[in-house]
Amino acid sequence: MDAEVASCCDQCDCNEKLLSVQAEYAVKEIAFAVENVEISRVLTVNQKIVYLNVKTKEGQCYCLELTVAGFRIVGWTFDEVIEKVDSPYFETIYPLLDSVSPGYRLTFGETLAGKLAKLQRAEQLPEITDCLDIKTLSMNAGSWEEDAATCSHNGSEHS
Questions:
Q1: Environment class of 131 (CB within 10 Å of its CB; exposed 0-12, middle 13-18, buried 19+)
Q2: pLDDT of residue 16
Q3: Buried-most residue among 51, 77, 82, 128 (CB within 10 A)?
Q4: Residue 47, phi-psi category: left (phi > 0), alpha (psi -120 to 50), beta (remainder)
């Protein structure tokens, strides 16, 4: 955590708010790639700690702890905290899930690839539309083949 933010939080008791906001954001961000995720309604949330319950695509349940140190696994069933658990902290929830759930990794990768493909199509749409307009005009003018060359992209012609 940034030193200035940490200093603010020591003075104004906003750690609870920051952790709660971060936990809510994590829930929204990973919901598409896990079977279930929620902020624990059983375990106590305070200014230093928030607990998340996560069920992976593989059906494995975890209780995750979020503190200023990051996210870590503290139990293997919902709302379970094993006091002396020796699990590493992760700065964000993404690498934690990536380390325990191949299904999360696959879903995340597929979703990212789909969004990138959609973005690529959206960026190419004006170019393709321009080419179609040029081809339509050229066909109407009788010079289709001459102007079709102006519609090439990465060395290939649009047809």
A1: buried
A2: 59
A3: 51
A4: alpha
Average pLDDT (18-29) is: 95
The values of phi and psi at residue 4, to 5°, are -65, -45
Note the pTM of the prediction, 2 decimals. Answer: 0.67
H-state helical runs in 49-156: 93-100, 102-141, 144-148
63: DSSP letter: E
Distance CA 89, CA 151 (A): 52
Predicted confidence at residue 145, as pLDDT, reads 42
Contact status, residue 87 vs residue 74, Cβ threshold 8 Å: yes
The amino acid at residue 64 is: L
